[in-house]
Write a structure and sequence with these properties.
Blueprint lengths: L1 H26 L4 E4 L18 E7 L2 E7 L7 E3 L20 E8 L1 H6 L4 E2 L1 H11 L7 E5 L9 H5 L1 E2 L2 E2 L3 E2 L1 H10 L4 E4 L13 H6 L5 E4 L12 E7 L7 E10 L1
Parallel strand pairs: 5-7, 6-10, 7-11, 11-12
Antiparallel strand pairs: 1-14, 2-3, 4-12, 4-14, 5-13, 8-9, 13-14
Helix pairs in contact: 3-5
Amino acid sequence: MRRAVLLTLAMTLPAVVAAQQHAKDLSRPPPRIIDLGHPLSDTDPTWSGKPVFSHTVQHEGALLVGSFSTDEHFGTHVDAPAHFVPDGWTIDQIPVIRLVRPGVMLDLRAKCAKNEDYRVTKEDIVLFERRNGVIEPGTIVLVATGWDARWSDQARYRNEHDGAMHFPGFSPEAATVLTEDRDVAALGIDTLSIDYGPSTAYEAHHITLPHKVYNIENAAHLADLPPTGFTVVVAPVNVKGASGAPARVFAIVR
């Protein structure tokens, strides 16, 4: 009899524990989902300043159909390693495990408001880690500069004067720390490039991409994120052999 009772308890206990856990999960508030990208439009800012996107639609009876054409590196998009690295991963070769990762957000809007050519420094990373803990391997690191507020005005977003564009980016030192020392999965920023506007050598790209760290550029709403405690989902258009692609990017915040 005792053996039968013990066996019954052993069989029912996992179900009780599972039910309790399910009830606890139901009592939690649902996660917030934050869109971190811009919808594609032919009026969006481009690297060259010239149109690179077109979209046409037509009605076929009750159906709405259409087609679009775009550069790979347009709108909110991902740079694959192949963008700068011969035989590097193309968009379709980036392992999906690297596209859904824990994220951190460095809020540098105040510094970027004072300096349009601000570059993320090693000291910015040290200060962030002092407050929030060391950035773990495989993390997606996002930097909020506030530049996305200019998105609707191509001239202000590209901010071209004195023979160059001007906007914030990553310094080579910061890119090196995050890529080589922290072994992150990706860097993301709400400007046209992870390199600051006046760069012609694209130093940060030459640091991240050879290490299979992809870049997210022209992100949006990064300042809506907490410093830590969220998951980033990066979903580039899966074009075979592409050096980059527009992407839907969002965060799940718990």
